[in-house]
Amino acid sequence: MKALRYENQKLSVSDVAQPDADGEALVRVTLSGICNTDLEITRGYAGFQGTIGHEFVGVIESLPGVSAARPSGRAAIESESSLTVGLLAPGQRVVGEINAGCGVCDLCRAGDPRHCEKRTVLGIVGRDGAHAEYLKLPVVNLLPVPDEVSDERAVFTEPLAAAGGILERARITKGTSVAVIGDGKLGLLCAQVLATTGASVTLMGKHPHKLRIAERRGIETISIDKAGLRTREFDVVVEASGSPRGFELALDLLHPRGTLVLKSTFHGATELHTARIVVDEISVVGSRCGRFAPALELLKTNAVDVESLISEEHSLADGVRAIGRAAEPGVLKVLLRP
After folding, report:
1. Does residue 234 contact residue 217 with C-beta atoms inside 8 Å?
2. What percent of the chain has pLDDT over 70?
3. CA distance readout (Å), 224 to 78, 109, 190, 205
């Protein structure tokens, strides 16, 4: 099969063996999305070698014999939402959570392997990823895609879940004032998800055409060069700019005892002036992966606009060029179709 791989500091589309399922589910990828993390990996982030990509929608090709049983662990927990995981079968459209835990540690047994010390992460840590014709994941990681959700929408499940993960890390209610820094893919998704809580959300960015996507959803937007007019105004600031400079701006925007939520990941060190955090008693929290079931529910109910974030689609065979395009200023989501 073809796969977009980063090896020996080189990115290429290679012919590799189809994954040996080895007790996991084998999924035929129908669409994958290029994420900023993919771009950072090609710059050395996480030291990953192999097939990149972690945003996907696909069709189950095969399941291990145990897949006939009702899922347990994390999948069972997520079935408490209105989207019941139910039984999985070959031919079913699915998305997949990217963290595969050991299954035996306390975190995994509690149904949340996102911080399992022995976890692998699809296309990021120790596991070949989704920019390929096929991938494999544990059955418990897979969730069925509702019929109402197209592939072009379903491929946003992972980044939408990451945006929703903020709600696990920070208390945000109808009376909360929130600023989101960055009008890229993640910033736009964060602003839309946070707006579903009834909070007062302001998205700050550089690109009018991107800001208009949020404006159409009734979200306030301002140009980043006018952010200085809003200093010490917000209860919560989400830093999703992809730029280390966003940290300092976030501290400017927060009032004392506010909460800074960090979403950006970078290759290399970043500066953070801790004196300001101490003096203003700022709470700083990281936010990474979120739950897939709530994200699928948002897609099913059309609570967020993801189609407007799609800039281009390329064939997997043209994956190197697609990565280059995704890194260009002004480009939003670039999709790959095997």
Report:
1. no
2. 93
3. 37, 44, 16, 5
**pLDDT tens digits for range 98-157:** 999 999 999 999 989 999 999 999 999 999 999 999 999 999 999 999 999 999 999 999
CB-based contacts of 118: which residues, under 8 Å, 6+ apart? 101, 102, 105
* Helix-strand-coil split of the chain, %, nearest 5: 30, 30, 40
d(CA 127, CA 257): 40
pLDDT 10s digits, 139-150:
999 999 999 999
Tell me the two tokens of residue 254: 């927060």
- The token pair at 303 is 């609570």
Q: Between vectors from CA 119 to CA 115 and to CA 120, what angle results, nearest 5°?
A: 125
Query: Can you list the positions of beta strands (E) in 34-123?
Result: 50-51, 55-62, 93-96, 99-100, 120-122
Residue whose C-alpha is closest to residue 100's, from 145, 72, 56, 139: 139
Q: Quote the tokens at residue 77.
A: 């927990």
Picking from 289, 291, 257, 256, the residue whose alpha carbon sits closest to that of residue 125 is 289
Q: What is the pTM of this model?
A: 0.90
